[in-house]
Specification:
Blueprint (H helix, E strand, L loop, with lengths): L1 H5 L3 E8 L2 E6 L10 E6 L2 E6 L23 E10 L2 E5 L8 E6 L1 H14 L7 H7 L3 E5 L10 H4 L11 E6 L8 E6 L2 H10 L6 H17 L9 H6 L5 H7 L7 H5 L6 E8 L4 E8 L9 E2 L2 E2 L4 H20 L9 H4 L7 H10 L10
Parallel strand pairs: 1-7, 7-8, 8-9
Antiparallel strand pairs: 1-2, 3-4, 5-6, 5-12, 9-10, 11-12, 13-14
Helix pairs in contact: 8-10
Length: about 375
């Protein structure tokens, strides 16, 4: 961590804020949630004290890392009235050189998904690209997945698959004498930083211990989603009665989209300040669960909670493939944890798969 700071990186990592493990700027190991874990399940989240000194014994942080690449609110431009003329001011912020420290495999995969959204050839978002450029990734293999996690189904974890410069596996946190970290460099940048640490080479015992951590984490994940043929299944199930069933429970609050690390919908607001003659055009996060999200001239297209939930889940797991040639879900389970009524996307998929009937009914 010190080596990265010496190289000029601002460190962003997991730390405790209020009653949650969140992502925020950190200065040292003392800011990490040592000795703390979390419990997550349908509509449930809480931080738990552990009886060991583990630094990374939580599933995934609340809120996630997305806000540092795609902020919830960002000013696109500012115009100012000066007499009879209007000038447009440069609002580009100075972006610090950043390192994400302790990011999980699912969230690394989510950044890869957002890269495809915001950095596609010919349609690159310059603000996103500027924040993404030079980002150093220190990942941590997940040792303690939550009940909400289903990353193996999506091929994103619990062990880090790709996207990191360095990967940390925490070993034996219960024993202060043997508590240590296995660090693996995945890129040349990672090798350069690792060389500065002066750490000794990993032993066969270290490598075997890391393998046991990854195997144990994978075996503890009980929630799964069968993705075989799923995009076509959802295309063929637009009128399935399960959409009406989930609509009875869904509050259309948008918590699932706001907590999701891949959702990218936004809205544009003009914020005038007549007293100072200034107008700001601002991009803010939006959600397909908002009634106004599907508004066109004459009204909104998706009037019912049924149609809005169907749009979200079908886009995430089906039509995302048409747009970006990948799934829009990484199996982090945040939509399950942070849903106030505990709706489980894997259970909704299972209900449609178990009864693929598609009766004709009014689509709304």
């Amino acid at each position: 961590m010190g080596s990265l700071r010496q190289d000029g990186y601002q460190l962003i990592g997991p730390t405790v804020q209020g009653n949650a493990i969140c992502v925020a700027p950190i200065e040292s190991l003392a800011d990490l949630p040592q000795g703390l874990g979390d419990s997550q399940d349908n509509g449930q989240y809480r931080v738990l004290e552990r009886d060991d000194g583990a630094y990374f014994a939580f599933a995934n942080p609340a809120g996630g890392w997305k806000k540092y690449l795609f902020p919830p609110r960002s000013v696109l431009f500012r115009s100012r009235v000066d007499g009879d003329s209007v000038t447009v001011e440069d609002v580009a912020d100075e972006i610090p050189k950043r390192a994400f420290f302790g990011i999980r495999g699912c969230d690394l995969a989510a950044i890869g998904v957002q890269d495809a959204v915001f950095m596609a050839d010919g349609t690159t978002d310059p603000a996103y690209a500027a924040r993404r450029e030079g980002l150093f990734m220190v990942a941590a293999n997940c040792s303690d997945p939550s009940a909400s996690c289903f990353c193996p189904s999506m091929g994103t974890g619990p062990a880090v698959r790709s996207g990191a410069d360095l990967v940390i596996t925490e070993l034996d946190p219960a024993d202060p004498e043997s508590h240590r970290f296995l660090i693996d460099a995945h890129t040349e940048r990672g090798q350069s930083v690792l060389a500065q640490l002066g750490a000794g080479p990993a032993t066969p015992e270290d490598i075997a211990a890391a393998g046991r951590v990854n195997t144990s984490a994978n075996e503890r994940i009980e929630r799964h989603m069968d993705t075989e043929g799923l995009p076509q299944l959802l295309r063929d199930s637009a009128n399935h009665p399960q959409w009406k069933d989930v609509a009875k429970r869904c509050l259309s609050c948008g918590n699932c989209t706001m907590s999701c690390p891949t959702c990218f919908c936004s809205d544009i607001d003009d914020v005038p300040n007549a007293a100072e003659g200034v107008n700001e055009r601002v991009r803010v996060w939006s959600s397909c669960f908002q009634l106004s999200h599907s508004y066109i001239h004459g009204g909104s297209i998706r009037l019912s909670p049924k149609s809005r939930y169907r749009q979200w889940m079908t886009h995430k797991l089906s039509t995302w493939w048409d747009q970006f040639d990948m799934s829009g879900c990484v199996g982090c389970g945040r939509c399950i944890t942070w849903c106030p009524v505990g709706i489980d996307i894997t259970a909704e998929v299972r209900a449609i798969r178990d009864d693929p009937a598609d009766p004709v009914e009014e689509r709304a």
